[in-house]
Batch of 2 targets.
Target 1
Amino acid sequence: VRTEPADPIPPTVAWADGAVRLVDQRRLPGTLAFVDCRSVSDVVAAIRNLTVRGAPALGATGAFGVALAAAAGADEHEVTAAAASLRTARPTAVNLAWGVDEVVRAWRAGGTDAAIARAQAIAAADVAANRALGTHGAGLLPPQASVLTHCNAGALACVGYGTALGVIRAAHEGGRVVTVWVDETRPVLQGARLTAWELDRLGIPFRVVVDAVAGSLFAAGSVDAVVVGADRIAANGDVANKIGTYSLAVLARAHAVPFYVAAPTTTVDASITSGAEIPIEVRDGAEVAGAEGARTIPAGARVHNPAFDVTPARLVTALITERGVLHHPDASGIAVLLATA
Amino acid sequence: VRTEPADPIPPTVAWADGAVRLVDQRRLPGTLAFVDCRSVSDVVAAIRNLTVRGAPALGATGAFGVALAAAAGADEHEVTAAAASLRTARPTAVNLAWGVDEVVRAWRAGGTDAAIARAQAIAAADVAANRALGTHGAGLLPPQASVLTHCNAGALACVGYGTALGVIRAAHEGGRVVTVWVDETRPVLQGARLTAWELDRLGIPFRVVVDAVAGSLFAAGSVDAVVVGADRIAANGDVANKIGTYSLAVLARAHAVPFYVAAPTTTVDASITSGAEIPIEVRDGAEVAGAEGARTIPAGARVHNPAFDVTPARLVTALITERGVLHHPDASGIAVLLATA
């Protein structure tokens, strides 16, 4: 009897003993530890302080956050307030608001059990979607592929398996020889800390580079494809993702290298016509400047610290989703994708 | 009587009491401290460990290094050995070998006094060249200019005044309103630590960004010009400079923003026909991974850490030198530039 090997990466978000259990991503790669959130304000704090991050993971976390309020016996007013605080904990990833709204709807229809069940279904669907989009995306890579990725769009950015890393993982599992260039992704280093940790656990070969190395890799012909995740995709196919993604898209186009965005369809915000309408979070400059005692910037110097940028659809070779691959995404293609069951 | 105000930035490299006195750039921006090198091996170590860096500064440091050997009474064999160890302390900046060779030649012709005098003349000529190229380059900027720069091509990269920052400084002194986007420049953070420190001292407004922000600034129309330095320029105008420079050149071209390289003509290596022949230093991955206790990358993970990249001449809008501005640099333009007294 052949059994599936245990996933070497635990679920990023889970419902455990009436709490929302999160991998503490601030402590990786040094320590794999968990944080149990027992109140909505715990969940909001965990989202804000980056204990949990990544658009699909935020969707599930928001969903479980509402379930937590429901399980605590919240009334309509309290659930609405919890939903509002969760929805606005961070602004850019649309999945967060989506996950919150889904569970509020389930709670109104069926109460606490329905809310918990819906949150758990969202978490399970996330992993299934990522496995599906991984399989779709793996087919786009050549048999021996050198892939560049940015930030962390892995299991840790989702409930499990990953989006961009899901594509890489599926290619690896399918026998393709994939090596990965991992952008360290300043200022929070999600690439160096999280993507490298995942690839190391999965036995997929990789090398970490500072973000500024990418250009020289393209120039040397050392990148066969770029695969990244997304925080929000507008109805016209424009993509908000981690700051630096747009630069990679421009470089990929200049070197005729395909640029792929891997994301579940829940990342599409059909209410927004273009990327210009996506709210871009600007975070505290202290993330860049370092803490007192380890400051790398003169005291008092100003920092501009946007967390995301927008890549126009025209630079996206294909959007890889659980429903299939949308080549050259545009408004009509996105509409067809969303209409597909 | 009007006197020149004292320069708020001390000389990066100077001859002091028979020693080579260097600003310790590893300790900035927190502490302005100096290191006195009293032997050639001290100088080689200071070059290797980045106490001093920047192509023109390395030229002067190499020059003073040979003067140090001469002053210690070295014979032909010892001077030749000192020159060899200085020339190869770091591989990419051509100014280092140039400065060393100049002083060896002076020593052979005129002994110790001639060696010291030649090194001091190189240092003085560096500041004069930077003031001249600064004036030439300032005229290229609009009256209100938002300039992006990368790494540190300031006074600290030279003996004084700076190349790319010399252009910005001359524009500022000439009454133009210049604001600067400062790339932090991972992994060693020469932008965040050194360029920000210089601009702060000079009272020129600036904001620090992580390197991956540049694309979004171009997309928003927030950059009027890119001005960077150079570590070596080939005879065809290809430019080796800090890793990440090439990405900025591609982004600038994609957004129709001028991309300027500011460097003294001593940075041109006429013996090299194209950038493909420039040796690119690959440094220890520990610079990227962090030290034990503050490691940001899983133990054992591999890092690729090239310190420089090559920007092809076709992406350079103009080369700004002490002899004037060479628009659209190519082999014939570089040849004319080098023939100009």
Target 2
Amino acid sequence: MTKKVAVILCGSGYKDGSEIRESVFTLLALNQLNAHVECFAPDDWQKDVVNCLNGKNMEEKRNMLVEAARIARGKIKDIKELKAKNFDALMIPGGFGAAKNLCTFAFEGSAGSVRSDVSGVIRSFYQEKLPIGAVCIAPVIVAMTLKNENLLLTLGDEGEAAQEIVKLGHRHQQCLSSDCVVDKEHRVVTSPAYMDDGASMAEIFQGISKAVREVLSF
Amino acid sequence: MTKKVAVILCGSGYKDGSEIRESVFTLLALNQLNAHVECFAPDDWQKDVVNCLNGKNMEEKRNMLVEAARIARGKIKDIKELKAKNFDALMIPGGFGAAKNLCTFAFEGSAGSVRSDVSGVIRSFYQEKLPIGAVCIAPVIVAMTLKNENLLLTLGDEGEAAQEIVKLGHRHQQCLSSDCVVDKEHRVVTSPAYMDDGASMAEIFQGISKAVREVLSF
């Protein structure tokens, strides 16, 4: 049976939007396993626009939905239209945008907040016991939304970000970018991807593919 | 032995730059086969900026090198620094940018011209008998640069674009997006990718992977 999976994006680019490679790997892995995919993003401004060549902020405004359409090849909808009841699973790729646009983790750590449209979607998938996959830094969005649910998550190494996960009432497990962590009880799957900047594309694709396979197996 | 491959990008997005998925698939396939990759793009304005959600032109200017850095995660150089003698092969992903930014094929067909920095690079790889891979619409750039060389190329179906290839003094071979065409004599490998808009991501990745394997096998 074909599984229907919603993917949340938030721009297109590793410094200010959804990480492009992680997003494409997620979509490719889902397609390779015959999932039916629909992409969604908030129809709102990115937190910032960063020149990904020199890392400096640009005096521009870009819209998360419009930019994410670059990755989605135009086939993407406003996150307001995303209803858990129409899907079997949710996937959230990472990138700085996940920590800056979808929530304020990049600025406030575990004290930050998640956009209400995004937290609403995560909560509804969780309540319906539908699996949620999150890549790279995106697990922090799940951790902030589902505070104190004692989820088992990974952000790769046991660094500062991992400590914030624990502060939010969850458990952190170290993991390579070529692998993923499965919380069977809560149906949450996470893979570190570019949390390890030194990981190869092949390793990251392997990790995301494993995560996608686990998400689809629930 | 690790092969060194140069990849030419020209922005980031399917309506106005390098097609994101084709670019990522090319980089992933190269990495999976242990190639050492360097990305390059012209440090110049894109021909246009297109809202990939509604297809309309945007009143903005974006730089090919700066935007391509989103795909390359900042690791990209000005195409002026690309010297064939430092590499074993060249790969060019497709997308509208390939036909609008790197050459004028989108507006003038076979009567158009190729940016001199890009045609210079292609000519030098060709003269050094180094393999060249081109994806989607990008074979037209090779066809325009190497006019009347009787290359065997594919743009997928036998459509209008394919006829322009023949006008330029080459041969066109029909091909599925899950496959590639190899011109052994001239060391040029092409794969249609999103020339078939209905092809799946898995099929396109398969075709690009085959093309990359052939390029590395010379």
